[in-house]
Amino acid sequence: MRQPWHIPEREATPEHLYLNRRAFLGALGAGALVACAPAKAAPGVEATIPKAAPPYPFRRSPRYTLDRPLTDETVAATYNNFYEFTQVKDGVWKRVGGFRVEPWTLTVDGLVSKPQKFSVDDLLKMMPMEERLYRHRCVEAWSMAVPWSGFPLRALLQRVEPKPNARYVRFVSFSDARQMPGVAEEAWYPWPYYEGLRIDEAMHELTLAATGIYGHALPKQHGAPLRIVTPWKYGYKSPKSVVRIELLEKQPHTFWEDLAPNEYPFESNVNPAVPHPRWSQATERVIGTFDVRATMPFNGYGAFAAAIGSPTRSLISRRSGGPATAAREGRSPPR
Ligand SMILES: Nc1nc2c(c(=O)[nH]1)N[C@H]1C(S)=C(S)[C@@H](COP(=O)(O)O)O[C@H]1N2
Ligand SMILES: [Mo]
């Protein structure tokens, strides 16, 4: 049976691009098509990918559409940043075997009226689950496009009732040197991984708490059993395997900002006009393809900022020219 995420390319690509691409591929001829075919999946990777089982899959939201094909699932599952295991991107999936993601407890506390602990099963039952097609842009100038399953983080935050002085949200990832070889080998890193958002960013409709991908639970290498996804920010703002969400009055420190403050600032909205100190952010390599694309401001999610009133400024970094930029570009969110 064809799984629901195996959508025809024309559904994920605007029609004119799809037609141009077809004409282009036709002109290349059969030999070139063989060279373009995705590499065979690494042997053994399937064993790291959970099977589709209820309550998955969830209904796909029509609101979040892509301008490019989805990344092949085995490509996404074999090219990961998860330093708790290794810095070698195609090595993470080989080292996740000893990581136990069941049972799992997520603690939500800090400046909230109802601090609570949740199991992932609780969340799957309580939260408004859906599937969303999102682009993901790493600060290292590569990208992918994947179908996440999850719920808007704001649904969870509303449930614990943030206090009026809660202005930031801090996330803490799981860390255990016995289960995660990178934590033992790279003991000089300030484990556990920690990240943060302003509360208006955390409450933004785009901010997803993801429990699944490609219509099933998350493979461990993608941050099982629950990770954050902020598609308008660089990938390191999306912490994996989260165990604690804490609401705070003051801006929290973040892992990469503490390591290299001039390279990984707290806000870190995707911006092709602001190079990383050591490389350009103007383009991105689409993993699993030979495609190199122009990177879009806010990773193409700027239109969502204009739609939400006052938090708009949260998506508009000062360097990109303020709300006028989104207005000038005339984008409006899908309805
Ligand atoms: N705990 C933790 N979360 C993390 C990271 C990490 O090393 N540890 N890497 C980040 C980076 S740099 C990226 S690009 C994404 C990668 O997510 P993916 O492997 O699911 O594509 O996870 C982010 N979240
Ligand atoms: Mo990244």
Poorly predicted spans: 1-37, 306-335
- Based on CA atoms alone, the radius of gyration comes out at 20 Å
Helix-strand string? HHHHEEHEEHEHEHEEEEHEEHHH
Q: Specify the overall morphology.
A: globular
The description of the largest β-sheet is:
7 strands, mixed
Distance between the termini: 31 Å
Number of helices: 12
How many E strands?
12
Strand content: 15-25%
- Return the average pLDDT rounded to an integer: 85
* Distinct small molecules bound, one entry per kind: ligand MTE, molybdenum atom
Helix content: 10-25%
Structural class, by secondary structure, is alpha+beta
Provide a quick synopsis of the model.
By secondary structure, this protein is an alpha+beta fold.
How would you describe what is shown here?
The protein has 335 residues and is α+β, with helices and mostly antiparallel strands. It contains twelve helices and twelve strands. It has helices at 9-12, 15-28, 30-36, 73-76, 120-126, 153-160, 181-185, 199-202, 255-259, 302-306, 312-315, 323-328; strands at 106-110, 116-118, 130-137, 142-152, 168-173, 194-198, 208-213, 216-217, 227-229, 242-248, 283-286, 292-294. The strands form two sheets. Strands 3, 4, 7, 8, 9, 11 and 12 form a seven-stranded mixed β-sheet that branches. Strands 2-1-10-5-6 form a five-stranded mixed β-sheet. Strand 11 (283-286) and strand 12 form a beta hairpin. 40% of the residues are buried.
